[in-house]
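DM from R.C. (forwarded with permission)

"hey, sorry to bug you on a friday — could you get me a structure for this? deadline for the figure draft is monday and I only need the backbone to look sensible"
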Amino acid sequence: MIRVRTFFLLILLCATCNLSAGKISKGYSALKIYNYFEAKRLFQSSLKKETSAAAFGLSVIYFRTDNPFSNIDSAYKYIILSETKYAGLSEKRRMSYKPYGLSFQAIDSLKGRIHQTAFEFYKKQNSIPAFDKFISYYITAPECFDAIDLRNALAFREAEKLNTFEAYEKFIYDYPLSRELKEAKERFHLTKFQALTKNNTIREFEQFLIEQLGSPFATEAKNSIYLLSTKNGTTKEFYDFIKKYPDNPNLENAWMTLYSVSAGSYEYSSLINFSKQYPDFPFRELLNQDIDLSRKVLFPIREKGKWGFADSMGYVAIPCIYEWVEGFSEGLAECGLNN
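My reply, with the result:
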């Protein structure tokens, strides 16, 4: 009894296989004469038993554009299914599919054409969602690399149109591997600096330095603080700046400008007063030298085509390094280098 049941099961199985094989054969025959409705019906009914062959046929139908079923996404779905199942078939089963033109080469060829067609389809839409769809869905397509570059470039152009630090910040977060990343970061820092200091006030620049200490515009913020703090050029402004911003890179310039304004004609009395008024002046050696020179009578001298100054005893007080020198006026003389 058991043998009889087994025998009938084998007969039923063979009949089912023959029926499926018959449907596949009829499906490809219908496909050959462009009877897409019948071919699609037969392939779909054979998917469970003859998956690779049926899926390949369906992929062909969906890939072609001369029928109402044309759909590039579906074509890709079924060619991947066909490829996956074909790889697991026995050599005997693969040989049985040869009359239908099914092989590794045929699958690979159709898949390549689907990749190209899908890429052109989504490329024409020229939108970030379209490129995202292609990149995420057509994961086997070599065109994904071009799609990524095009998507990133499009996203960057959209950020440029907005031209806000928020837009660039979002781009940097969304596309950290983009070719435009370097420029996006530069624009982010610039637009953020501009947004946070739009009123050009000392308070804004101070707050910017607190919040954006690592910004490449930190130095520009410090320079702006210096210029705004000393806009009237008074000694009080320069000294207040020096005391309030001891770490500002313009500190030395502030001291020297303060010295120049305070010293006036560089007379002995002016220099002594400056020394007393600003005991924290960091360039004491320069000040002492100027005090010494202010008590001497100097005369211009020339050596090897260069000008300098010597005292009445012939001692060279200022080396001959200057290209030109003007006559003394009120105890001062201008000299300089041509370059």
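R.C.: lifesaver. The first strand starts at residue 298 and ends at 303.
me: no worries. Confidence is low (pLDDT under 50) at residues 1-19.
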